[in-house]
Amino acid sequence: MSAAANPASSQVTDLLTPLDTYMRLHAATLRRFGARALDLSFPNPQFLADPHPYQTLAKLAARCDPLDLRYSPFGGFTPVRRRIAAALSKRHQLSYRWSDIIMTPGAAAALTIALRTLLAPGEHVMLITPCWMDYPLYLADLGLGCDPVPAAADKHLDLAAIEAAWRPHIRALIITQPVSPTGVVHNGDELASLAALLTRLSQRHSHPILLIADEAHRDQVWAGTCCPALASHYPHTLTVHSFGKAWQMPGQRTGYLAVSPHLTTPPQAAHRLIQAMRTSGHGAPTALMQHLAAALADARPDLNALARLQRHARQDLRKHGIEVLEAHATQFLYARCPTGDDGAFVTALANRGVLTMPSHLFHEPGWFRLALNVDIPDLSQAARIIAEEAARA
Fold this sequence. Notes:
By secondary structure, the protein is an alpha/beta fold. Helix content is about 40%, strand content about 15%. It has 13 helices and twelve strands. The strands form three sheets. It has a seven-stranded mixed beta sheet, sandwiched between helices. Strand 11 and strand 12 form a beta hairpin. The longest helix has 27 residues. The protein starts with 6 loop residues before the first helix and ends with a helix.
């Protein structure tokens, strides 16, 4: 069947196209400007803010023997899972068992395994936009429906909009905490209200609604704000986490799925997720990175450098008249596009050697995102160029 005759295939192609287009712009800009390019697009920091994860990895690698690097079972090494379960129990105030933790090669693999295993083709998932770019792509590829609901003006949850948009065929909701791309942290009152809403909706539609909590950025709350866990508020929660963002090694792709001890539907969810890793070919992460995850399970990164960059960049952009969203987490800064056309504005910046990301990639128009990958002098130069392009609009 051709893509044109297959709606799911056509939808996947449509979802792939925006990032493919942006990647061509990204590559062309790097070829043109080389080392002079200021790359604030993907979160690939160009200097090391906290050496502790790198030092720990080097020590582990130096003393590893062949058995340390053996095949791990699907789901991961049991001692590693015990260590993660203990650390997460303290963070979430829940009693996770080691068997509730499934080690994965990053958050993307964790999420796709969860969607493939716990939902059936034809069922729908609600997303709060803006959101990470590939959520809708995964849903389309798996034959799952996508029901996007915009966040409130301040990019916090719009509970009234969620309730108004809910339909019986929606079986799950994906929430990021903190939010990527905006950096917003949902507070405890928001999460308690969301939990109450999901409980009412579950009763109304006679099935528990699955809440998938993406916590990939939870260790980057640079303003010291509390970052409460969704699993602490709502029992039917599956938590997805990736260590790479906070460790400044995102390419190592190490994460996990955590099944809430109170999740009862579907039954034996953790066992089914492990079976799906085998049948889908998405195996465990590398042995060495699992050992690093265990070693750093209780560690908190030094966020002083990130806080310094965030405060400087926000002050600099606001000084130039650029509207910046109030937020307290992640390596990202979310700013209002001065022209309204985020794609054209990001292209204009790229033509000046500054790479940012248009918000339409995150399923919302009219904004642009900066990843604070460089130090203050380069951030100030980027802010000046952004202001100059805004003035030309």
